[in-house]
Amino acid sequence: MRKQCPVHQLDEDSLFAVSLAAVETGLKNVDHFVGSFGDSGDRAEEDSILAAIPEPRHGMIRKIFNSALAYHHASKAEPFVEQLATGLLDETLLLASKHRGQVELMGSYVRRIPSAVIAHVLGVPSKDFETFARWSDEVLARQGQDDASSSNRSLGEIHPEFAEYLDDRISERLEAEIPSEDVITRLLLTDVDGERLSRNAVRTQTMFLIIAGNETTRNLIGNVMQRFAEDETLYSRIRKDETLVAPLIEESLRVDSPVQLLARSCTRDIELDGIPVTAGQRVLFSVASANRDESTYLAAEEFQLDRPRPRDHMAFGAGPHVCPGAYLARMETRVAIETFLRRVARIELAPGHRPEPNPVFWALGPQSLHVILTPT
Ligand code: HEM
After folding, report:
1. Residues with CB under 6 A from ligand 1
2. Which atom of ligand 1 lies closest to the CA of 114?
3. Which atom of ligand 1 is nearest to the CA of 320?
4. Residues in the chain with pLDDT < 70?
5. Domain at 7-375, CATH from 2.10.109.10, 1.10.630.10, 3.40.930.10, 3.40.50.720
């Protein structure tokens, strides 16, 4: 398809873009394409997730995310991630030791990291970390179950319990005498075009942030662990040379992109890689395909650790909506891998391990990973 039909007409109303040129152009062009899955920017702003808010409002709100998740803030979370990963791996190895080395790694280690990190960055109590992961999964599962008639529900309507919990955290911050440094406080107290965001808008964006950082990062760490379990040579090579961890993460993002698809609505007629797209049509942009485009990547299907520009991929999107959490995601993934490398001499798939399909249609990552671990 990339060679013969880079933008394919699925039906009258929708197209599927697969070449790197089409995906990059479409994602960068916010004048012609808006929205995301099930959210095309036509609902009240306070119920719209950041990814679906049209310019110029998107850019104004986005600045708050950028500053809150910027390197100098996000890097302060690194000692927390180190401590967290070490504690979780202790538990995982203890559990494995009771079952002749066998353990389900996604549940015991991988999945618990991103939700705890987001909760930490948001400044919510540590006792609630696990609940965050569950709620975040439930929102995605309920979105997946929605039929066409109910798919326009806001995040608050989809998960009232989650919304109520965040409403309480918002009230605490509005009542605090000394404002804290966390993301929720920043969203509440920063002026956007001369006024503050409403409580509902802050709740919507906070829920979105939790979900956006959770499913994605867990899949990235899980995809790396799966490669390790399937490829003994790769694992021992990385163990011998930790400088390869950074290119390994980038190559995993490229070849096993955690976000496989992004959706947009076209607002004005335009051509995409030579194919006309008309206002009102939906376009599905295949990040997964763009990242394997042979016109840009040599041996595109191969997993290689010595690509000349390892960060040149679309896994975090492109243009004004490019992922603001990329630094945090890379940092927590690096720490999760380094902690693992230093404590685990060998990882292999357990006999009988069966890959399960990911229920989130736009995501790629193992649901479970039954492995046998040999500690150092
Ligand atoms: C491996 C991990 C991650 C991947 C692969 C990833 C991927 C992406 C992609 C592809 C987009 C673009 C969406 C679009 O254009 O519609 C995006 C946006 C976003 N991501 Fe991430 N992300 C990751 C981690 C995170 C983390 C850790 C956070 C938060 C702490 C986060 C927060 C966001 C937000 C808020 C947006 C919307 C930005 C906007 O619309 O301006 N992401 N991410």
Report:
1. 27, 36, 50-51, 62, 65, 69, 118, 209, 212-213, 216-217, 220, 258-259, 262, 315-317, 321, 323-325, 328-329
2. 27
3. 41
4. 37-42, 146-152
5. 1.10.630.10
